[in-house]
Amino acid sequence: KIWTSYTMSIQKKKFKKLRKELQYWQSELEYVQEVLVEWHANFEEYYREYCKTMKINIHELEQQNSKKVKEALPLGYGLVPESGSNIFEDKTDEKEFKKIYKKLAKKIHPDIGGDENDFKKVTEALSEKNFEKLLDMCDKHDISIDVDDKINEVVLKQIQLTKTKINNEKSTYSWLLYSCEGDKRCKNNVVKKFLEHLFNYTVKVF
Predict the structure, then answer these.
(1) CA-based angle 128:179:186, to the nearest 5?
(2) Is residue 125 within 8 Å of 152, Cβ to Cβ?
(3) What gap in Å lies between CA 201 and CA 108, rounded to an integer?
(4) How many C-alpha atoms does 139 have within 13 Å on its Cβ side?
(5) Rounded (5°) CA angle 60-69-190
(6) Do residues 18 and 145 touch, judged by C-beta distance below 8 A?
(7) How far apart are CA 30 and CA 36, in angstroms?
(8) Which tens digits make up the pLDDT trace of 10-67?
């Protein structure tokens, strides 16, 4: 019993540490995504202005590569990260997500007088496979979580997944343009790389 209690204590400390790390990376992801909401549009504006200055017929380029443009740029001008699947790759993850989801549903489902907006957030968190959002709602509604190795493994995977999403978002041309700040040469180089990548078009400088 003493050993079991000690093990549980270690697991809870690990969970607390991992949770803080997940919150940090989740916050970072939200920041990057907020920046990109504006900078996808900024990239398109700068890209078109650059092509106009360099007398590049982008309308013709886009028509010739319409399929590639449609596939590569559904959300704006930049490398768009692969969208996440709603299918769980690991059955353990699915089990842990649904276990917590059910706990929340029993307490906040609108049919039993719960808050409709909160329940909507919980459902979205499950659909997005966002464990931190589920845990946040548990905190809000004083729902205790049974901490063990399985749940710690799920949180660790969420940290790794969030880091991957951040790296993907930061691989977009929109983010690269944002990172140039006021450096016009840097911005022009980003657009050149974009033209080479998407259209296999090399900018000729005379």
Answers:
(1) 140
(2) no
(3) 55
(4) 8
(5) 85
(6) no
(7) 10
(8) 899 999 999 999 999 999 999 999 999 899 889 989 998 999 999 999 888 888 888 7
Enter the tokens of residue 153: 């493994």
Amino acid at 179: S
User: What Rg, from alpha-carbon coordinates, does the chain have?
Assistant: 23
Please, where are the H alpha helices in 54-169? Answer: 58-64, 66-72, 91-108, 116-128, 131-140, 149-169
Q: Cα angle vertex 156, ends 151, 159, to 5°?
A: 130
> Smallest Cα–Cα separation from 58: which of 205, 173, 185, 191?
191
Q: What is the largest CA-CA distance in the chain?
A: 79
Per DSSP, the chain holds a count of helices (H) and strands (E) of 9, 0
Distance CA 13, CA 113 (A): 34
Q: What confidence tens digit (pLDDT) does each residue in 151-170 have?
A: 999 999 999 999 999 998 89
Do residues 130 and 184 make contact, with C-beta atoms less than 8 angstroms apart? no
Report the distance separating Cα 110 and Cα 114, nearest Å.
4
Q: Which of 17, 20, 27, 11 is nearest to 163 (CA)?
A: 27
Q: Is the pTM of this model over 0.85?
A: no
- How far, in whole angstroms, is CA 128 from its chain's centroid? 10
